[in-house]
């Protein structure tokens, strides 16, 4: 088992190195390293606003021409890749990207419109920071610059030597040298002065950067108290020469403000040594390997209830992130009583996931063994993601994915292939590409055993417009597979072994995109067309012949079994909203493939089989319309977030009270992150989604109502850190899942799947 874990780590390391080398060989980029708060946005050169966290995320690249804005309680760290220079933006700062270094031009240019920045330059870096009246040329230093138009231009240097002067039309004039431990205020006393601890705390107090995120040279500098005297003198001489050259080249007139130009750091000089003695020191950094291990390695040890049996588990879950690329592995041993006995390990869906084909036999059946090994390896991928489906021109998801959506969601919205994780695991796949004038999305629930596949193709025919027209299709190849049960005595052929194909058209009209207010209009129409693979006969019905069920869509000169939705979605400040009108007939339901679809497959197959056996019965099914509303928000620096949604339907041919006989839908989600709850610092989440919510509460059918049957998707988690052990925490997770036989078959009762609780208690170890 160790060799397979090592294999994955080595493989990932090689891929990461290759990506980093490729990046370093090309042009530089400004990347969002870290955001502290929820009021962060940038406006690109065309005027489109991208807002955190929905429109922009950590790891995104900020394009040239963009203006970055931080709110009243939000700061951010930006890194120039690949050289490592770090720029921190204080709260209430506006910062513009004017130019990014290329192979032909080795200078990055930024503009500080207002606010404060701290620049920690990597050795050999080159960039300029401008304001309307100042310029800061950086060649390796650590300083802060606070700027307010006409009232403040304060430079404070922690490391290095900075040239600070007036800015003329063609350059810097009347420069002064500001050494480490000094400051200069252009609109007050321009002469450099030693800063006090109080002033240092005032300017650097809100600009702290963890040592592990500093450029490599700066991390090492924190551990080095002094350099060889000869080397320090050489650095000092180079700095003085560069300052002299810059001064000679400066013009003698045309003063419009102040300017700054930083020279290579002269660490080790006498002036710096005195200043460093008064400057607060950051703690020594961990080694690169230790830091890497702390970031990526995680382990879970505990118990999990699957079916009627309690299992023990030991799971290693390495996680990695490079920019927008995120991945996590899932390396579990779930066992009954003996950790070291493979025969005692849990087998998801009857598969021995650590056999890698050996249980089949590589010599006797090489092809089958290879397929089994591929599937076993695939099960070790928890997820692999790149980009954001809503905002990035390219994205993909691989693994156990909790949300697949096609278009605006009339056919598929928030479908999840991980609803029964870890009892059942899949290698889902979702990929999208936006080429501006056209684009597409494709998906499948499992690459190793695909059952649900789909896609969307869209275009923007109007030049310069974001209006898009799309066509979508999602197919369930084997919806009746769940009805194959020796115990229940049923097979898929008893219901025609159908194939479900949902096909739809959509229209997308973006109106406003802004951090304050955003709105997008949309409209969708779709229908469901089944295909019957074999003839079948239901009790009391005539034979239904195989073939396409066209009479499900068109019967007696009338369109049946279809649905439509239209509405708008967007944001008001930090609140996201969605409001839409829905109409549907027959067996069609909005968001046909949703989070609970896997649990309703049996019921859906039986319903369609009955309709196909008697197409006239569709006329007796309700024509339903209603309003779906959804809203959510992230508060307290995203440490608290929630979402609520409800669909209130009614039969347009009956009175309003008929809501009890139609399918309503309710959704609630709450997430609490670490740092919100004082003292105990607990965190957790809970999600509940259900169709037939109000009818079940009213219990019109009598009996004992159940809010956790096959119409429900439920999951919750509570995590509590152990105070005396900073790397340990206790977690309890509760959810509902499909009950399965040992061979992986779904347990049935009266033609419906049996649901059971899934309870996990575990100790989490994060290095």
What does this structure look like?
The longest helix has 24 residues. This protein has nine helices and 43 strands. The chain is mainly β and 767 residues long. The strands form three sheets. It has a 23-stranded antiparallel beta sheet that branches. The chain has an 18-stranded mixed beta sheet that branches. Strands 41-42 form a two-stranded antiparallel sheet. 15% of the residues lie in helices and 41% in strands. Among the domains are: 284 residues, Sandwich (Jelly Rolls), CATH 2.60.120; 89 residues, no CATH class. The protein is globular. A hairpin with a 7-residue loop joins β24 and β25.
Which features does this protein show?
about 775 residues, mainly beta, Jelly Rolls, 23-stranded antiparallel sheet, 18-stranded mixed sheet, about 15% helix, disordered N terminus
Topology overview:
Layout: H1 2-25, E1 29-36, E2 40-43, E3 49-51, E4 61-62, E5 67-70, E6 75-81, E7 86-89, E8 94-99, E9 108-120, E10 127-130, E11 135-138, E12 142-148, E13 152-159, E14 161-167, E15 172-179, E16 182-185, E17 193-194, H2 197-204, H3 216-223, H4 229-249, E18 257-263, H5 270-278, H6 288-296, E19 298-306, E20 309-316, E21 319-322, E22 325-329, E23 331-335, H7 366-378, E24 381-386, E25 394-399, E26 428-434, E27 438-444, E28 452-459, E29 468-476, E30 499-512, E31 517-532, E32 547-548, E33 562-572, E34 575-584, H8 597-613, E35 624-635, E36 640-651, E37 665-672, E38 683-691, H9 693-698, E39 712-722, E40 725-738, E41 748-749, E42 752-753, E43 755-766
Parallel strand pairs: 9-10, 11-18
Antiparallel strand pairs: 1-4, 1-6, 2-3, 2-5, 5-8, 6-7, 7-9, 8-9, 9-12, 10-11, 12-13, 13-16, 14-15, 14-18, 16-17, 19-20, 19-43, 20-23, 21-22, 22-24, 24-25, 25-26, 26-27, 27-28, 28-29, 29-30, 30-31, 31-32, 31-33, 33-34, 34-35, 35-36, 36-37, 37-38, 38-39, 39-40, 40-43, 41-42
């Amino acid at each position: 088992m160790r060799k397979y874990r090592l294999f994955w780590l080595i493989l990932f390391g090689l891929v990461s190195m290759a990506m980093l080398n490729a990046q370093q060989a090309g042009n530089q980029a400004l990347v969002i390293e870290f955001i502290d708060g929820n009021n962060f946005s940038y406006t690109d050169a065309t005027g489109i606003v991208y807002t955190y966290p929905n429109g922009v995320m950590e790891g995104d690249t900020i394009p040239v021409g963009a203006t970055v804005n931080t709110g009243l309680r939000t700061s951010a760290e930006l890194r120039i890749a690949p050289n490592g220079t770090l720029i921190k933006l204080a709260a209430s700062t506006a910062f513009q990207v004017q130019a990014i270094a290329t192979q032909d031009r080795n200078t990055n240019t930024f503009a500080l419109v207002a606010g404060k920045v701290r620049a920690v330059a990597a050795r050999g870096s080159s960039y300029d920071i401008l304001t309307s009246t100042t310029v800061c040329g950086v060649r390796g230093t650590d300083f802060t610059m606070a700027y307010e138009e006409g009232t403040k231009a304060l430079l404070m240097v922690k490391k290095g030597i900075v040239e600070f002067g007036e800015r003329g039309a063609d350059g810097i004039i009347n420069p002064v040298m500001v050494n480490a431990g000094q400051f200069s205020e252009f609109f007050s006393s321009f002469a450099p002065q030693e800063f006090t601890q109080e002033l240092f705390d005032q300017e650097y107090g809100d600009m702290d950067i963890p040592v592990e995120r500093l450029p490599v040279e700066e991390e090492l500098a924190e551990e080095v108290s002094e350099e060889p005297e000869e080397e320090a003198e050489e650095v000092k001489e180079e700095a003085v020469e560069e300052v002299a050259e810059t001064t000679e080249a400066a013009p003698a007139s045309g003063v419009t403000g102040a300017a700054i130009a930083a020279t290579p750091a002269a660490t080790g000089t006498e002036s710096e040594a005195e200043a460093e003695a008064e400057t607060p020191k950051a703690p020594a950094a961990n080694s690169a390997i230790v830091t890497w291990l702390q970031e990526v390695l995680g382990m879970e040890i505990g118990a999990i209830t699957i079916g009627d049996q309690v299992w023990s588990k030991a799971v290693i879950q390495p996680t990695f992130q490079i920019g927008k690329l995120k991945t996590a592995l899932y390396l579990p041993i779930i066992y009954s009583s003996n950790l070291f006995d493979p025969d005692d390990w849990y087998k998801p869906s009857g598969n021995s996931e650590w056999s890698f084909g050996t249980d089949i036999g590589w010599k006797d059946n090489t092809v089958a063994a290879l397929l089994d090994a591929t599937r076993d390896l695939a099960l070790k991928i928890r997820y692999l993601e790149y980009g954001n489906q809503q905002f990035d021109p390219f994205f993909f998801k691989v693994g156990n994915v909790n949300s697949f959506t096609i278009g605006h969601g009339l056919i598929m919205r928030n479908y999840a292939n991980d609803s029964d994780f870890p009892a059942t695991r899949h290698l889902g796949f979702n990929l999208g590409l936006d080429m501006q004038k056209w684009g597409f999305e494709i998906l499948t629930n499992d690459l190793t055993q695909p059952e649900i596949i789909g896609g969307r193709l869209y275009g923007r025919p109007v030049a310069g417009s974001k209006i898009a027209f799309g066509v979508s299709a999602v197919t369930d190849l084997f919806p009746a597979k769940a009805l194959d049960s020796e115990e229940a005595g049923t097979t898929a052929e008893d219901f025609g072994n159908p194939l479900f194909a949902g096909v739809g058209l959509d229209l997308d009209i973006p109106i406003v995109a802004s951090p304050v207010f955003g709105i997008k209009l949309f409209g969708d129409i779709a229908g469901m067309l089944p295909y019957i693979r074999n003839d079948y006969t239901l009790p009391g019905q005539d034979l239904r012949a195989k073939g396409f069920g066209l009479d499900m869509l068109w019967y007696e000169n009338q369109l049946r079994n279809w649905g439509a939705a239209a509405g708008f979605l967007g944001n008001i400040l930090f609140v996201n909203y969605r409001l839409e009108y829905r109409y549907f007939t027959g067996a069609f339901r909005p968001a046909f493939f949703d989070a609970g679809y896997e649990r309703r497959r049996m019921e859906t197959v039986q319903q369609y089989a009955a309709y196909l056996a008697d197409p006239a019965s569709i006329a007796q099914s309700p024509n339903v319309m209603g309003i779906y509303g959804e809203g959510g928000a992230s508060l307290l620096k995203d440490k608290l977030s929630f979402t609520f949604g409800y669909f209130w339907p009614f039969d347009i041919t009956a009175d309003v009270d008929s809501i009890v006989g139609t399918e309503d839908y309710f959704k609630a989600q709450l997430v609490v992150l670490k740092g919100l709850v004082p003292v105990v610092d607990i965190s957790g989440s809970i999600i509940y989604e259900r169709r037939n919510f109000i009818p079940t509460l009213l219990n019109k059918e009598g009996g004992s109502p159940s809010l956790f049957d096959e119409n429900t998707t439920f999951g919750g988690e509570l995590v509590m850190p152990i105070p005396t052990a900073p790397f340990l925490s206790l977690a309890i997770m509760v959810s509902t899942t499909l009950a399965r036989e040992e061979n992986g078959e779904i347990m049935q009762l009266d033609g419906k799947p049996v649901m059971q609780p899934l309870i996990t208690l575990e100790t989490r170890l994060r290095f």
